[in-house]
Amino acid sequence: MTEAQADMPILDAVGISKSFGAVAALKDASLRVGRGEIVALMGANGAGKSTLVKILTGVLRRDGGEIRINGQARSVRNPRRARAAGLVPVYQEPSLIPDLDVRANLRLGDTPVEPFMARVKELGIEGLRLDDMIGALPLATLRILDLARALASEPDVLMLDEMTAALPADLVERVLKVVRAEAKAGRSVIYISHRFNEIAQICDRATVLRDGHTVGDLRIEPGVEDRIVELMLGQSLGEGLRVEPRAVARDGTPRVRVRGLRAGTKLGDVSFDLHRGEVLGVVALEGQGQDELFDVLAGFRKPDAGGFDLDGTPARFGHPADAIAAGLTYVPGDRSEGLLMARSVRENIALPLLARPRNWGAIRMKDEATRVKAAIEKLQIDTRAQGEVRKLSGGNQQKVTIGRWVATGVDTLLLFDPTRGIDVRTKRQIYGLVRELSDQGAAVLFYTSELDEVLQACDRAVVIFNGRVVDEIDTQTADHQLLLRAAYGLTEKDRLEAAS
Amino acid sequence: MTASVTQTPILRRVGNFLRDNPVIPLIVLLLVLVAVLQYLRPGIVNERWIANTIKFAIPLAMIAACQTLTMLTGGIDLSAGIVATVASFVMATQVPLVGVGPAIAYAMIAAVLVGLLNGVGVAFFRVHPLIMTLGSGLIATGCLQVYQRLVIASGSSVPEFLTWLGTGRWGVVPNAMIVFLPFAALILWAQSRTGFGRLLYAVGSNERAARLSGVRAWQVYLALYVLSALIAGVAGLLYIGMIRTASLSLANALMLPSVAAAVVGGTSIFGGRGGYGGTIVGALILTVLGTLLTLLQMPEGARRVLFGAIILAVTAIYVRLTDQG
């Protein structure tokens, strides 16, 4: 590779390492970007992409390794230094202040107004006024403004993190065209995306991360996506544990039938059936609309279009209490969202039993103790630290959030990434519990950010990509590679089209 | 403070102990204050003094119950003192017109109306409790002034049983304990052994988690602020029994000390932590401290400065020791 590039790379990061406590997020990551080059940075969840980007943009400090800019070793100690060195990021979350207007936001970042407005026009946003309040603009527009702002500062290296997520198709086209033109004019781009078709359209190379290592650096050419998937996957994952096959009756009325559900900018049009006695996996990369799907089913938000039936009857929830009354109970992935951290295990588990005003009176303490004890035993929660839930380990905390619903009796369980950041043994226990509950007739919807879990815990899975269900997977025949390809929106049909 | 530099582990162990038994250091502090008082004025601590101290701590402790309960949800009830005043004034002025029973009923209705206003504002319009109760307190004060013009001719009177409750004592036990004892027992029981009490902690520690468990927070807020106003109303009736004259600002002076009593008693103003047990001791501490500072015969200004400084110091140390925050 080095010989192939005649001139010096503008950005050359070598052997970058970074640990958070005992967890090594990056071990040996390297990234090289030549002048005028567009490089895709790829990797599965947890491979270290965002850590690397944060180090390059000065948000995090590296533990080891070297960053050379134009051949000179530089310390990008904070975001300002990174900017001064010509590295400008556009993050997934808009970085404009909602309570200020456009002009005030530009002033904050010392962005020149004229070039900014020119870029905005070029990127296809018409009629933007400097006194528009940021908070009143749609998400897609904000992302474009972020990009325009970055471009107006004339960066040497532009870092785009999932730039086209949440953008409608026409704006995606515009953005890709502009990025391509910028590269032609000599600007370099680091392009982080889950979308292979975009990468194929504009990128020159792809750098692949896995487990904190740079494992490959490939030229983009037809058929390269298979190689990339292979690299992201690695050899270490062969046939892992797999869920035992069982017969699930799917001919009756489904417990939950989701029909053409749309919510927000991300969830476009999702339909699927969830039956009693089955664990249905949801395969989706970050931000494909799964958050909105679970929010709607759990009663946190109302759909913009479409809806869902419960046992054949249309349902609509205005509050999580409605969902719970209908038997749909939700376990969030972020445990701090679901728990009363400073309260006891008992109070946390008993909470739903007290929610309704008719249960506001005296608590039957013995009754409660029995129920809580049963839940603790069923989930094997280690309650040595009874006093406050925040003193429990992450796995035990998650068991408490599930135990809460076990204590009330489970009908339909919505698990949103329930094993995030917990150890393997506890994960297995949770799979076992989920399976037991579904054997007893519960319907379980199971989203996980770890693809392997789908094979270990689910009877089948639907794949959501870009806000739509693009595939359904039989977990008995699928392997990891198929899952990963599916998650990236690569169905068999697409591959044939790409080949022709 | 110097010890904290060298002996952190011991201090932490002490902290853990205090954390599990938060009322103990407060009781110790109370006893120390009483001892200081006895040292400065030997013989002052007698049966009558104790009865008087308890008597004056009771209305404060009741209004501080309003603060404690609302603070558990991360709120506050700045209208509680005014509600107590409103209830006492309405009662005293209505007694000559309609008799004792209906007068008390009117007084409680007036209190509940303010509570409803607070509840609706906090629950449905999501106004911050600080602002909501400050506003409703002003409105209530204004209404009371208008009301005073209407009843100015009829005069006022305080029913005998209230003065008996307010002024009588039986040894060291003031008669007001007949009301306060069951009241305190009820609150202490309710805060941990009823669904409503648990929900106060739940909503205060993590409203989203409570929502996710099916709690409709508005129901909790509405009931809470009405309950708080009811408590304040009863406290007002008890207080006028002690003072024996109706006035337009009777219990208003208890307002800020009631907040202080709850905070000194270990209830976190950010919600989810604390309880009424500490508040009761907190109210006693503030009452004894008041006597102590009066005895020192300092000028009023210096007394206030010292009073404020001691409250801040106690709270800061207590929060540090019990690792709230």
Number of strands of chain B: 2
Helix content of chain B: over 70%
The end-to-end span of chain A amounts to 29 Å
Could you please say which CATH topology of chain B applies here?
ABC transporter involved in vitamin B12 uptake, BtuC
Number of helices of chain A: 18
Oligomeric grouping of the chains: heterodimer
- Structural class assignment of chain A: alpha/beta
Strand order of the largest sheet of chain A: 6-7-8-3-9-10
Would you kindly provide a brief summary of this structure?
The complex is a heterodimer of chains A (500) and B (325). In chain A, 35% of the residues lie in helices and 24% in strands.
Fold blueprint:
The complex is a heterodimer of chains A (500) and B (325).
Chain A: E1 11-20, E2 23-33, E3 38-42, H1 49-56, E4 64-69, E5 72-73, H2 79-84, E6 87-90, H3 102-108, H4 113-122, H5 139-152, E7 157-161, H6 169-184, E8 188-192, H7 196-202, E9 205-210, E10 213-219, H8 224-233, E11 256-263, E12 267-274, E13 279-283, H9 290-298, E14 305-310, E15 313-315, H10 320-325, E16 328-331, H11 335-338, H12 345-354, H13 365-379, H14 394-408, E17 412-416, H15 424-439, E18 443-447, H16 451-457, E19 460-465, E20 468-474, H17 480-487, H18 492-499
Helix pairs in contact in A: 4-5, 8-17, 12-14, 13-14
Chain B: H1 3-6, H2 8-20, H3 23-40, H4 47-72, H5 80-98, H6 100-123, H7 129-151, H8 160-167, E1 169-170, E2 173-174, H9 177-193, H10 195-205, H11 207-212, H12 217-243, H13 255-264, H14 276-295, H15 300-321
Antiparallel strand pairs in B: 1-2
Helix pairs in contact in B: 3-14, 4-9, 4-10, 4-12, 4-13, 4-14, 5-6, 5-7, 5-12, 6-7, 6-12, 8-12, 9-10, 13-14, 14-15
